[in-house]
Design a protein that fits this description.
Strand content: 15-25%
Number of helices: 3
Number of strands: 4
Order of helices and strands: HEEHHEE
Oligomer: single chain
Helix content: 40-55%
Radius of gyration: 28 Å
Strand order of the largest sheet: 1-2-4-3
Structural class: alpha+beta
Largest sheet: 4 strands, antiparallel
């Protein structure tokens, strides 16, 4: 009788452990880490930035356009600033910040102005726009 009771308890313990093990969630495969900002590839650079407008209008389309325009302007400035900082680190004797900024602006103006807005989110009655801005070679 003891053997029968012991084997029954062992079986119950085994079944309870097996049922607990099946409730565990399987780990989801991780997505490759692609940065949202900075150098995405050898030819693509992105910045995430917000722009705001003071425009008060009943025309929400005009307010959205004004806030997005402000964000794009700030994004272009941020790209230039990043490129200048990178060039200054690579070539310490290249000149002052202003001289390098002018050079970057001249050399990369078409690329920076030809950038695209990848995503946009509006807040504060569309007066604030956060964008992800991408420039490519």
């Amino acid at each position: 009788m003891k053997k029968y009771l012991l084997s029954l308890m062992t079986l119950a313990l085994f079944l309870s452990l097996a049922s607990c093990a099946s409730d565990q969630k399987k780990a989801e495969p991780s997505k490759p880490d692609v940065p949202e900002e900075g150098w995405i590839s050898d030819d693509e650079f992105r910045v995430k930035i917000s722009g705001e407008t003071e425009l008060s209008s009943a025309d929400r389309t005009a307010v959205k356009k004004a806030s997005e325009t402000a964000a794009v302007k700030k994004a272009r400035e941020a790209v230039v600033k990043n490129f200048v900082t990178t060039r200054m680190k690579q070539s310490p004797g290249a000149g002052t910040y202003a001289v390098i900024a002018l050079s970057i602006d001249k050399d990369f103006r078409d690329i920076i102005e030809g950038g695209k807005v990848i995503s946009r989110n509006y807040e504060n009655n569309d007066k604030k726009c956060q964008i992800l801005y991408s420039v490519e070679k």
